[in-house]
Amino acid sequence: MNPPRTRRPARLASALVGVVAATALAGCSATNPITTIGDYEASDGLGVTLGDVRAVNLLVVTEEEGGLGTLAGALANGGTEDVTVTLQLAGAEPVDVEVPAERTVLMGATGAPERYLLAEVTTEAVEGRPGGTTTLSLATDAAGDVSVAIPVVDGTLPEYADLVPTAEPTPEPTEEPTAAPTEEPAPTAEPTS
Questions:
Q1: Number of domains in the chain
Q2: Would residue 126 count as lying in a domain?
Q3: Residue 120: which CATH number?
Q4: 97 pairs with which residues across the strands?
Q5: What letter would DSSP give residue 34?
Q6: Would you say residue 120 lies in a domain?
Q7: Do 91 and 102 contact (CB within 8 A), yes or no?
Q8: Residue 114 lies in a domain
Q9: Are strands 69-77 and 53-62 parallel, antiparallel or unpaired?
């Protein structure tokens, strides 16, 4: 009778293949950074951090270069104190936005949940065409200021269609109606007797 053969070499080879496969798969994350671990812009806009305030997904929506524009994005205050952020689009007046501690303020949002605060930042004439960029300056007392080039988009994409500003129609001047001239009846001759 022959002694039973052991399957030790097959088991060893199988374990070795498993170790090599695990090492190869782990090597992918060692040489390629994992995108979802770091901050990244998940939208068309641009982000910047200024002290405790993170500005995310910043972009301007307009119909055309030189037209009315709306700033869209969010300001999130991760600090324990309220912060005033001064925003200034190229060629526009600065706008102060109050961002309470540990809260988020949405700009250019329609139909936002009640937990968010809303702010409207507009410009009369966007300095940049859709598909290009324009400059936005952000400033806080504690963190100083920074200028960034943010995208300019139009309402082609459905998510921005409601954000395209339109000029308020100016009422046409109304003229007061004038009464038609009335003619006085011609004097009639009275019969003589």
A1: 1
A2: yes
A3: 2.60.40.1890
A4: 85
A5: -
A6: yes
A7: no
A8: yes
A9: antiparallel
In order along its 193 residues, the chain shows pLDDT tens digits of 666 665 566 666 666 666 666 666 666 666 666 665 655 556 688 999 999 999 999 999 999 999 999 999 999 999 999 999 999 999 899 999 999 999 999 998 877 788 889 988 888 999 999 999 999 999 999 999 999 999 999 988 888 888 888 766 555 555 555 555 555 555 555 556 5
10 Å Cβ neighbour count for 2?
A: 4
Assigned domain for 52 exists: yes
What's the rounded Cα separation, in Å, for the pair 136 and 91?
10
The two tokens of residue 49 are 């951090």
Rounded CA-CA distance 61/68 in Å is 8
Closest of 70, 92, 96 to residue 83, by C-alpha: 96
Residue 55, classified by CB atoms within 10 Å of its CB into exposed (0-12), middle (13-18) or buried (19+), is: buried
Q: How crowded is residue 16: how many other Cβ atoms within 10 Å of its Cβ? A: 10
**Domain encompassing residue 87:** 46-156
Asked whether the beta carbons of 88 and 95 are under 8 A apart, the reply is yes
Q: What angle do CA 116, 118, 119 make, to 5 degrees?
A: 150
- Looking only at the bridges linking them, the beta strands covering 133-140 and 83-89 are antiparallel
Beta bridge partners of 146: 138
Note if the pTM is more than 0.70.
no
